[in-house]
């Protein structure tokens, strides 16, 4: 009726619309004529039969999809974080083992006379060791049973946090706790075995200490003088081995990339902590080489620090507890991602764009031109408001969300067709590209225009999407299905660094139109406008283009939402570091109480010689503060070395304020444990302590 039509030759039609031939096909309609003598009425059934026989429904876009099977496959989740959770838990487990060994060692030292009496009355050393080990296993078994109940409560609290406190960062309304009996069995048995191992290590000194010395109250396991040189040589060898392992792990991460990163993180961290422990053990076992000052508070401080050498094993385990907890907290805090101050810079995660908009109905006209704005029926006031805004419209093939906000496996991720204007403009930061030297190296967006040797389509994706959602690396191939049902190979040629384009695969618009010819117009827009006018431009777009279902959002806000999800995972891991701080504080308090109990007579003697209670408090707290600060520095240095390559290669800034506050909290907790143990001890009566001196 009203649509104008014209009949032209086929050759003219192919010439006029040649650019659409690859996108829509060579012909758009066919006319059939009956053969000579054939009744026209019989032609239609014959054509229909031939069409059914010759046409492939898949090439027309029809596909039979097993929805339930695909949903169940997607419900497995994109990434199993149990390995990372277990990896960070290893540091907490190591701290727990050190605390068990420390507390049991303190118990053995306190019962030295009892052990010596058993040996003196004829009990074999192995039987005494088995007796003590069996006693420890009973306590460990009871503790493991209580721990299993606490584990279920801990998991429940984590899920409650994901559903309530952290719901804004991660939409997880359907999460439920699935507890398998096998998990409890494995966890309980592993806990008992670990405790038994720690107890066995703590009992080694019993076999080397004579019964007479134990009856006299000697500390079991004190190494004889002739063995110290051999021990020091072994410590030096162990230290270099730890340093070599750490250097190899960090180098492997830089050479191979992401696949080795989690493993290298744990190997490097554990090795560096081990090297620091060896260095501290070497210092603790070495004798003082300089005399103390004659008097003054400085002399008290140095004397208190030297007291840490009296029980080198205790001091080493105590500092190790603090160092382990500090390493986990500091490393994870440094890896947290925050939107930088220059969030609207072109090299940032926003790419220099201030707004991002999506529409339900694609826009067929260009918002950058007056004619396009008029065709979209924008009012004159709206056109004036958008005069200094630049729009970069992208074609969108809807699909599965592949950002970190989606917990399910994306089988057909969203695909964006990037226009030439955006390829020429550039922007964003890249973590890796396949570009060599030249223009493509300076602007990896140009890689989308290249033709690959194997006919795969060059593709760009955000690194988070590629690694954690799609499980592919730079240079790998992804498979998607185009409108004709054909399998299409997409080759990753560059990876974006924490950008607002997370969740989609980016290809050139010219290739997009060949894969998805029926998708006309743009449903995804990047808007470049001064930040001061972003709110006004957003209101105008949403009001004037409401019929298209346009919804705009601040790119800074979207980037913050995406980074919040990654920070959420780091928060769950940091809880483990917080538990490590609790263990370290408990270990400090236990060691300090034991040391004060052993030094009561000495402190009483100093008190009678004229030392004030405040001076004795400084003397005792100096040892405690030395162990806390040493562990804090060791954990912080190890964390800095391990995370430095990752921090240096990303655009986000390190949260220095929160990191400093967290370290200050660890320091205060450690010092508070010392103060809580010292104050009651210094108030104890002196007479009973002096009688034992």
Percent of residues in beta strands:
5-15%
Catalogue the unreliable spans.
Answer: 223-227
Biggest beta-sheet profile? 10 strands, mixed
Q: Which value, in Å, is the CA radius of gyration?
A: 35 Å
The number of helical runs is: 25
Distance between the termini: 116 Å
Strand tally is: 10
**Gross morphology:** elongated
Which descriptors apply to this entry?
693 residues; 25 helices; single chain
Description:
The structure is a single chain. This protein is α+β, with helices and mostly antiparallel strands and 693 residues long. 57% of the residues lie in helices and 9% in strands. The protein has helices spanning 10-16, 21-24, 43-54, 67-74, 82-110, 112-120, 125-165, 181-202, 211-215, 228-256, 261-285, 297-306, 312-334, 370-375, 380-385, 420-425, 439-442, 463-469, 509-515, 534-544, 555-598, 600-608, 613-648, 656-682, 687-691, and strands spanning 355-363, 390-397, 414-418, 430-433, 457-462, 477-481, 487-496, 504-508, 522-528, 551-554. Strands 1, 2, 3, 4, 5, 6, 7, 8, 9 and 10 form a ten-stranded mixed β-sheet that branches. β6 (477-481) and β7 form a beta hairpin. α5 (82-110) runs parallel beside α11 (261-285) and α13 (312-334) runs antiparallel to α24 (656-682). The longest helix is centred in the C-terminal third of the chain and has 44 residues, at 555-598. The protein is elongated, with a radius of gyration of 35 Å. 34% of the residues are buried.
In short:
This protein is of the alpha+beta class and 693 residues long. It is built from 25 helices and ten strands.
